[in-house]
Amino acid sequence: MILVGTSGWQYRDWRGRFYPQALPQRLWLEHFADRFATVEVNNAFYRLPERDTFAAWRARTPADFCVSVKMSRYLTHIKRLREPDEPVARFLGRATALGDRLGPVLLQLPPNLRADVDALDATLKLFPADVRVAVEPRHPSWWTAATRAVLERRRAALVWADRLGRPVAPRWRTTDFGYLRLHEGRARPWPHYGRTALGSWVGRLTDAFGADEPAYVYFNNDPGGAAVTDAVTFAALARRAGHPVSRVPSPAEADTSDG
């Protein structure tokens, strides 16, 4: 199953595009969750929500909805993976209020954080076996056999990432689920992706993961609603290739042109 969503749902320029002009912002999550089956929450990176907020997201979404959550920058960017026990415990103490809605936890590492596989291993071992973790290193020193071995041993996914239609990380399969983030396309209007680029990612995912293995796909190119329309196009290409895909908006609902 390919689960397709966007990185966040609260973007002002989506009003009048994806969100009806008259829809109150307090109902945007419900609108989103009726049309997508998953979302990646990025604001937890900047300010970790209270447990009650995660619980409220669970109460406001359908039973089949999945929320992937980006780890607080306190662990990844301030502590830089040092002394991870308290940050991980605090994060889990809040995010687990999502219950069965909790999807993978995303650890995005700073671009200037050089490889430290021991620190990564010490961090990953703190997560319970039933919590999926995806890791997005961004310094090239991480692309080693030692890094891959730690991810495989801890059953964590290496994030596959794209910018401008090109992979920016190795396409290692390190566990039984995939995680793809699409940051910026090359098509017009910016920052959309073209159909050829999206079709290539469909093929890469389905070559690596079976129909019974989830692959989470999040579009992070939010300006102008590009993420919504690209998610719909990606899902259509995957279905056309015969692969099961989670729900996405109809083409009419995903029309993010002004008006």
UniProtKB/TrEMBL annotation:
It comes from the Bacteria. Gene3D superfamilies: Protein of unknown function UPF0759. InterPro entries: DUF72 (IPR002763), UPF0759_sf (IPR036520). Pfam families: DUF72. This is DUF72 domain-containing protein. It comes from Micromonospora orduensis.
